């Protein structure tokens, strides 16, 4: 009818990302972060492939970290580079995923300036929390001295962690550096600076490669079989521990062993298969497992986030659809089988 105005245009993810980049005060950043979350959720509900949605969400999270760093006063005025790691670094987060941060500071930064930077990092994390973004519950935070180091200290640490990976959480630290991406710098480090160092160090260390493989195949949880469920009367499983983490870790180890600089899990699996670090059939199976798990986690978690509920990867098999329950059990068997195979091959030297 005459005089009717068209409905307002729904903000796109690009609009939200521009809003994050342009934010000059906390309220603007919080609003832009909310718009980004809504836009990414709309993408998923429009049947965009889950891995594409995850990559979009990772981009929004990275930009929000960078914007938060810009908004918090820099009293130290020293050179630094902020990195994110984990699923955000790889471009594979799910709704509610924590953000892991690391900070490389200039080698000439004195202790007083470093202390100021640790305080600034804590303020950045507090701002992220106010924007609805959780920081890592396991403590991978740039506000901790372990994850705020001079650039030379990061390099020296990596040599130590790969030479003797059983000490000082060497495998964990190597994995964090291999999954890292820089989001903001004042000293010119590239976004893959930590990854390049890690690739070289792991390539020179048979001990590191062996330790990464053993960690990747040391299953810390299992999908309960029908018999075990019947016997124990419990069908609860942590999908991240039992299925997702092993797939991600196997891909990371295999890619590093193959000399690949890839950061996404699927690209790592492809490169490992091409280099025959992984059997092609095993790599293909892990690809399928990872893609399905990503889609399932998004489907499960996006509703929790929208309702304000706590997100979790723990599910009761009896509470999910029969076809999903069958797929989870199938993935569990694949993960166990591939892990046992790799450990056996590793034992042959």
Characterization of the model:
The chain is of the alpha+beta class and 349 residues long. It folds into 2 domains: 192 residues, Beta Polymerase, domain 2 (2-Layer Sandwich), CATH 3.30.460.10; 140 residues, Four Helix Bundle (Hemerythrin (Met), subunit A). Helix content is 60%, strand content 7%. The strands form 2 sheets. Strands 3-2-1-4 form a 4-stranded mixed sheet, with helices on both faces. Helix 5 links the parallel strand 2 and strand 3. Helix 3 crosses helix 5 and helix 11 packs across helix 12. The longest helix is centred in the last third of the chain and has 27 residues. The model has no long low-confidence stretch (mean pLDDT 92).
What are the main properties of this structure?
349 residues; four-stranded mixed β-sheet; 14 helices; single chain; Four Helix Bundle (Hemerythrin (Met), subunit A); Beta Polymerase, domain 2
């Amino acid at each position: 009818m005459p005089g009717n105005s068209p409905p307002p245009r729904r903000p796109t993810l690009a609009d939200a990302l521009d809003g994050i980049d342009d934010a000059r005060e906390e309220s603007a950043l919080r609003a832009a972060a909310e718009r980004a979350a809504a836009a990414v959720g709309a993408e998923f509900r429009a049947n965009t492939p889950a891995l594409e949605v995850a990559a979009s969400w990772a981009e929004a999270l990275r930009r929000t970290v960078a914007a938060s760093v810009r908004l918090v006063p820099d009293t130290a005025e020293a050179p630094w580079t902020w990195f994110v790691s984990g699923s955000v670094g790889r471009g594979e987060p799910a709704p509610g995923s924590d953000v892991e941060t690391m900070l490389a500071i200039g080698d000439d930064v004195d202790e007083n300036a470093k202390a100021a930077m640790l305080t600034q990092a804590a303020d950045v994390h507090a701002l992220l929390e106010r924007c609805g973004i959780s920081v890592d519950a396991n403590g991978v935070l740039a506000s901790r001295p372990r994850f705020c180091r001079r650039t030379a200290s990061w390099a020296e640490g990596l040599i130590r962690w790969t030479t003797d990976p059983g000490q000082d959480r060497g495998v964990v630290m190597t994995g964090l550096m291999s999954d890292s991406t820089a989001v903001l710098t004042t000293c010119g480090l590239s976004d893959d600076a930590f990854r390049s160092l890690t690739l070289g160090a792991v390539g020179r260390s048979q001990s590191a490669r062996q330790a990464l493989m053993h960690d990747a195949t040391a299953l810390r949880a299992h999908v309960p079989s029908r018999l075990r469920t019947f016997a124990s009367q419990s069908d609860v499983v942590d999908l991240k521990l039992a299925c997702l983490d092993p797939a991600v870790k196997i891909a990371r180890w295999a890619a590093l062993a193959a000399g690949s600089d890839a950061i996404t899990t699927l690209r790592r699996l492809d490169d490992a298969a091409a280099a025959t670090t992984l059997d092609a059939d095993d790599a293909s199976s892990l690809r399928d497992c990872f893609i399905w798990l990503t889609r399932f986690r998004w489907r499960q978690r996006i509703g929790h986030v929208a309702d304000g509920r706590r997100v979790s990867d723990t599910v009761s098999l009896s509470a999910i659809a029969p076809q999903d329950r069958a797929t989870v059990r199938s993935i569990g068997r694949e993960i166990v089988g591939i892990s046992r195979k790799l450990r056996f091959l590793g034992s042959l030297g």
